[in-house]
Amino acid sequence: MGQGQHRPLYSRLQERIAELILSGKLAPDARIQSEREFSEDLGVSRMTVRRALTELVNEGLLERKQGSGTYVAKPKVTYEAAELANYAQAMQRRNIATASQLLEFCESVASRRLAQSLGVEIGSPIYRVAILRLANRVPVVLERDFVSCARFPGLQDWDLEKTSMQDLLTDIYGITVGQISQTLEAVVASDTVARQLRVDDGFPLLMLSRLVLAGDGEPLVFSQDFLRGDYARIHADTRLAVEKPSLDGQPGKEECTGDPSCIADR
């Protein structure tokens, strides 16, 4: 730990352990040394070791398990907000081995909530689809899609494990998607979700509710996706309007250039 002597000792220890994790020398789920073992091996105080490990826990590189010790955390997939409509494609871009399992495909009837979301009458026939997405053989996302049978005839003829709902809309049914409205919230796994996602009851999840609309505003697909909280994080960028002086000396705002994330007063 001779480099960067000007930095606090805990910071240098933190960086050393982080390098071992990021280089793969410490694998996910590997149990690391205890505070006492680190202290004795490196000749530093346990308080210094505790501070370094706490910082790594806060960064998400380590996780503490009560009564068991400290372990290397599982790597999380960082999804861009715009990628959430197609998890398989997002993981493939990151060179993650993916697989899908169709857990459920059935015809049902629209409840009041689903009828309102899909713009159909209560009791109208709908397709209910549940697909499990795996990353490196680990179940990470449970997708539940609901669509109108009348709007998507013959849906049962397509391989839903290999074709995303988004691709079906555009490539098979020739629909132009105009808008996707998404809401993200933290939930815990119910009995059914836990069984399908292969986690314990009460496991922490992210639930993404999504409504896909056609270019003319017609509702197409209502989805509820459940993402394992220990395997996923969501990233979103927000572009703000930049103020600049106007010709009359008063503050003004930079005009939008067609970017929907650029907001300007007109």
In short, what is this structure?
Helix content is 24%, strand content 33%.
Architecture overview:
The protein is of the alpha+beta class and 266 residues long. The protein has 3 domains: 9-72, Arc Repressor Mutant, subunit A; 77-235, Chorismate lyase-like (Chorismate lyase, 3-Layer(aba) Sandwich); 237-266, no CATH class. It has 7 helices and 12 strands.
Give the N-to-C terminal Cα separation.
58 Å
Question: Can you give the helix content as a percent range?
Answer: 10-25%
Uncertain runs are 260-266
CATH architecture of the largest domain: 3-Layer(aba) Sandwich
Number of domains: 3
SSE order, as H and E? HHHEEEHEHEEHEHEEEEE
Please report the total strand number as a whole number. Answer: 12
Tell the overall outline. globular
Give the spatial strand order of the biggest sheet: 4-5-6-9-8-7
Into which percentage range does the β-strand content fall? 25-35%
User: Biggest β-sheet, characterized?
Assistant: 6 strands, antiparallel
Helix count, per DSSP? 7
**How is the quaternary structure best described?**
single chain
The CATH class of the largest domain is identified as Alpha Beta
Which SSEs are present, and which pair or pack?
Elements: H1 9-22, H2 35-42, H3 46-59, E1 62-65, E2 69-72, E3 77-80, H4 87-93, E4 98-109, H5 112-118, E5 125-135, E6 138-148, H6 165-172, E7 177-188, H7 191-197, E8 204-214, E9 219-228, E10 232-235, E11 243-245, E12 251-253
Parallel strand pairs: 3-10
Antiparallel strand pairs: 1-2, 4-5, 5-6, 6-9, 7-8, 8-9, 11-12
Helix pairs in contact: 1-3, 2-3
